[in-house]
Amino acid sequence: MKLHRLLCITTVFLLLMPLAAHALQIPAYTPNVVDPAGLLSAQDTERVNQTLLKIRNEQQIWGAVYLVPSLQGERIEQVAAGAFEQWQLGKRGADNGLLLVLAIEDRRSRFEVGYGLEGTLPDVIAKRALDDVLAPKMRQGDTAGAVIDAFQFMAGVAAKDPATLALLQQAEAGKRGKVIRGLVAWLGFVALVWVFQPLVRHLAGRRRAKLIAQHPELAGEDEHVAGSKARPRRFLGLFVKGFMTLNPGCFVLILSAVFAPAFAIIIALELLFLVLTLRYAGVRYRSAGQFRAFLERVANERASLIRKGHVAQSDSGAYTYTSAYYASQSSSSSSSSSSGGGSSGGGGASSSW
Q: Does Transmembrane appear among the keywords (predicted)?
């Protein structure tokens, strides 16, 4: 029994060793910049440290920054919380610690806020500091400048600094503007999806009525190759329109909200599509000559289908599609394959600076 227990303990220990080896080890605290890999120069470290000391003296915010090359597979939230608790940041009883963690290779960042500052610096403010203040300079490679600006922004919000609050309001207005921009483009797209067919029918009907009023002899002409006995698939049409509203429509909304040039292009395309619709809807009714040319094309197509046995004339004189026509349509549609040599688009999403 003792040997069996010893083997079990040894096995568990060996299995846990790789996990322990790969876990990110939090170093000892070095005020106020913890940079065990030396990612900042001595001069940049001093700049950051002086900024944090000034914020501590003026705003009673005990800030610190922890820089790591990589998270080694751990979540940055866990690393930040673990470092915050291990170092016990902030003044006892005030809980006014503020920790910024930067994982350089992973391009991840996090502000961990002490309990005493959560009312003054809520999550939305920390998110704004990371996205709008820190991220741009991190993308430029200015790590020290990014850290300093992010902490100064947080301190400015805590102090209710007018310039910082104005910057925050400007960012919020810009965010609302992006949402409105996306909704405008999406509503234009949805209007085209749902109104296009009724609009075309309405315009064509008006132009036909005007043409017939001028040329009554064209009133009785048959404009269709043949009639169909199949029931109209109304629900299929509604499904397609709903799918277009939600699927491509979401891409239109997101692209327009995120990228101003995309919004301009989409709006221009929507307006162009609307103009072309107004211009060419019912174009065959523009003149008697155009309408007669259209009727001749219909008659030629009908004659061709009659020769193939796909259209027949009923006792009442009306032309209808035959069962052979529907059989040919079914066989041609079933010959297509979903395997066309396509490749994955590699879709996905990630958050980084």
A: yes
